[in-house]
Amino acid sequence: MAGIISVGAYVPFQRLEGAAVREVWGTGNPKASRPLAGFDEDSITMGTEALINAGGWGGIDLDALYFASTSAPYAEKSSAAVMAAAADVPESAFTADIGGSLRAGTAALRIALDAVKAGSAKRAAVVASEMRPARAGEPDELALCDGAAALIIGEGEDVAAKIEAVYSWTEDFIDRWRLPGEDQVSAGDTKFIQDFGYVRQTVATVEGLLAQTGATREDVGRVLIYAPDARTQAAIHRKLGFPAEAYPQAPLVSRLGDAGAAAPLLALTEALQSAEPGEHILVAGHGSGGDAFLLRATDRVAALKERRGVAWCAGRARALPNYGNFLRSRELVAGESLNIFSSPSILWKESRQTMRLMAGKCRGCGEVQFPRQRLCTNCNARDDWDEIKLGQRGTIYTFVHDHLPPSPDGYITMATVDIEGGGRLYGQMTDCSKEAISIGTPVELTFRLLHKGEGYYNYYWKFRPAK
Amino acid sequence: MSQSIAGKVAIIGVGTTRFGELFEQTYNDLVVESTFEAYDDAGITGDDIEAAWLGCYLPLGWGYDGTGGPALAEALNLYPKPISRVSNYCTTGMEAVRNAALAVASGLYDCVLAVGAEKMREVPPRGSLVAQHVEKLHPLFGKGRTAPGSFAILATRYFEEFGAGKEDLAEVAVKNHYHGSLNPKAHFRKEITKEQVMNAPPVTEPLGLYDCCPTTDGAAAVILCRADLAEKRFRKKDYVLIDGMGLSCANGYINTQFNPRFDFLGFEATTEASRQAYEQAGITNPLEEIDVAEVHDCFTITEILNYEDLGFVKKGEGPDFVKSGASKLGGALPVNTSGGLKSCGHPIGATGARVIANLTEQLLGRCGKRQVLGAKRALGHTLGGPGSVSSVFVLSKN
Q1: What is the arrangement of strands in the sheet containing A161-170, beginning at the earlier edge strand?
Q2: Which of residues 167-206 of B touch A (CB under 8 A)?
Q3: Domain A3-329 belongs in CATH node 3.40.1350.10
């Protein structure tokens, strides 16, 4: 039976604190603390990190990759293709970009499952990632959250959680919406959309699944329901009528916020990382109807604990250092604009190096070199390289805090890093304070938005402290 | 190397503009001023010039200034002579002089002109050649590298290895500002204190504002001739001879900081360029045999590293060398008596030619308060790219 082979999640380390918002605008829950994509993150970079967390470093064997988001950086151009390159997925993999609804995450899961069941893909990844739009000072700024989840779907012995049943239905409904180019989500009447939208539709989704499978409410160990906020979720829980212990003690929406299309899959990755073999898990996504899945953990489920997930990311959380700089970095207030050179033909021809981080290892002398040259700088051999993937980790050989380039932090830390397994990389650090950096600091690579030169997104790798 | 340059080429005239923020002057103004000062110094006119080289690192305005030979011909009416432009990062001005010297040594020309010129303040600081690193260069590899950043990153490692600190770098800034205060053509002509250096705003930590040379306009010109003609044809009793010159590209431009064999404690380009120049000049103990030096102090750390790479002292002894006063006027080997790049500023294409001009004036005893008494032998050094290319000259009084 088809099911989930691996999981990974990524929640940005940066937290927007209610207190910081309140200090400026006078409103906002002072206890709120929600994950906020850094100035160099977006739904592609967070999704890439989640996918690598699920599939590992150095090539992920997939036949299909489905990227689900309502906040893809490009309105036109594949985001899944960027992610496939950065996570080092074979070029033979089918990729698709799925959006348009907060149901995109569970929709992609259903599509991936169908592809595996139909035999068109042996292994398919679903990545749901969101960087949700909100205006400064508006309630959504603290209610929404950014993050990504990745699931790898397949069949056979490796399956850690079988997907036993799926139920979907559709009913056109205007609850929340956003038109192209708008920078915040609009919503209908709160009471109407809660009662007739989130609660009624989700109950119908879950009851449809139970009716289809014959499962009772007592058969399900955990119930993971999407809702835009904790209050609505509690209302759905009450109406659904599962035993209280089936619902999460501290649901993600109350701990982190509303991660949109990524929310149901984030909840699922987290649940699977603590699930017992044999346990049944029900997960439901919502949006003009809903998708519900009934899963059952296998003996392999314990292996998922080692994957980086919500808990791993939460352990690295740090408060946003400066709210004003954040607003400027999101272009919510004007800042210094740079006109950075880029070229699609350069990005294309060097993508095995810049995206997949393929270095050259000289067949003659063993020198690992990045960026790769035609001639080995050590022994002069010409075009005699084996392509090798750079390691994910390394240690800082030397560094500088450079205050010249405009940056939300006021400076950019550039580091030269000796990579485990050979090669030396020089690039920017991210997600760290000056105090966290010294010669010898262990660091790891993280995929980031470097700049928007020539009006498109230029992605590359940065370092962050490994601990 | 089959032959040495030593004794083949003479410098018979030099000229430099004032270095500074020369908003009121055009590129051609700088070229004309520096070159005519050199003509007068040599006692010649443009008619005597048979060929010329222009050093300009990055022409502004899509080649409006300084892109090729015609830019120099236009300013100086040197039609229809053979003129070309050279560019080799921060060694550019010295590279113009080196190419001119090679042409004379080849026997093809008797008298040639080398001009280095750069207008850097025609644009706001963010648009300057140095700051544009962030906007230009490779779209991804090393993005975020800046000129001061690529030297500060050595300071971090150097501090770790040798236990040195910011206070050691400050010694260089204080010394070179003192020298600059004596140079009427320097961009900065004020002495500063160690406290000012230490408390200055950070630029590229560990470097602060006073660890960095300014963004400056300027030009310098050098007239070279066959050594045997200096007296016979040009009637010079006192002139300067090129004893040796070396150039080394020891790293690439983009991949310097990616090079696993680069220790970030000094520049192999300098070591190799000086080895070539010393060999031609017959120098075995530079500290003893050189009387005055102009070295590339784009940032204070660079001067410390230069002492070591040029063989004045051993690796790790650079801080003590400056602290001891050895590199100050009156010391064992005064370094950057002009004020260096730190006080003169660094119009990139001009700097190397300015170094040759200043050393020529030292060897001819024309430096007034900055004069190193009895200077017979001089060393000039420039370093460019992120330390990947270096040029070294050894000069002597005839």
Answers
A1: A94-98, A64-68, A124-130, A147-154, A3-10, A161-170, A289-297, A280-286, A222-225
A2: 201-206
A3: no
